[in-house]
Gfo/Idh/MocA family oxidoreductase (Paenibacillus chitinolyticus), 335 residues
Amino acid sequence: MSSVNRKIRWGILGCASIALRAIVPAIQASSTGELAAIASRDGSKAREAARRHGIPAAYGSYEELLADPTLEAVYIPLPNHLHFEWTIKAARAGKHVLCEKPLALTAAQAQEMVAACREAGVLLAEAFMYRHHPRYDRIREILAAGELGVIRAMRASFTFDNSADTGNVRCRKEWGGGSLYDIGCYTLNAARYLLGGEPEAVTVQAFFSPGHGGVDMMASGLVEFPGGVALTFDCGMWAASRNTIEIVGTAGTIEVPSAFVAPEGRGADFTVTLNGTCRKEPTPPVNQYAVQIDDFGRAVLGREPYRFPAEDAINGMKVLEACLLSAETRARISL
């Protein structure tokens, strides 16, 4: 097969819902990827997932999948506390790694993961799928052109109600559970991406629920950026569903509905309001997970650099750690 038509052979470590619901069809729909294998610690579970989704190979352990010499890249959708271990093992096995967010539990872990992948000569990426959607390129163009004037503030919300499922991995504190780790990380990542800088300090208030393993089931915060710009955010796993972004400038605003979970099969339009006049910015109906796979695949194939350096994940973990510390201590944390 010519290099132009060559596809990356993928394996998936685990049968998590996000893997089967989103990443399996994304790889299969991509132009650069070929889904070749899936693994689970329960071999029958892996075989059933492979049968149902048309995946050629199924393995009864993660080690078996990593030992497959025909696989070039792996996607890791495991619980948060396992990202560190299996990213490093995958790197040592010579596999490129797309790891679910958050990349790690701490910035120190993220730093070690980045170093291990760099030493092994493999690509490491944190799976924030939303930022691969073309609407965010357009939003950044509008901001860079100064259409909104001077940026004054940003608001972001990401909430859903999963409170009835008290046995969910998101309710295991030692596994990296809680709303900040699960979805608050999106709001923080988006602010850093769209505002183009790193925060100076954070202040977060959270509701830690005894009935949910003591994890933060709701959190609200203020994230201070240079120049007097701030992100106000909230995230929660025990609230009505919302995922929105608003950017406020001196001359106008941008409002992004369905900011992180894009609607399926239709455009993901957003609104720009300038001096009282509103316009809708149309965006095409794309599978943002498949776009993520292709961005990753083109980088692995050497066709273009990956858009998001691994160091971005380290900086993101520093902010997330600070938010968790602020929530736990009820204090403003400087970065």
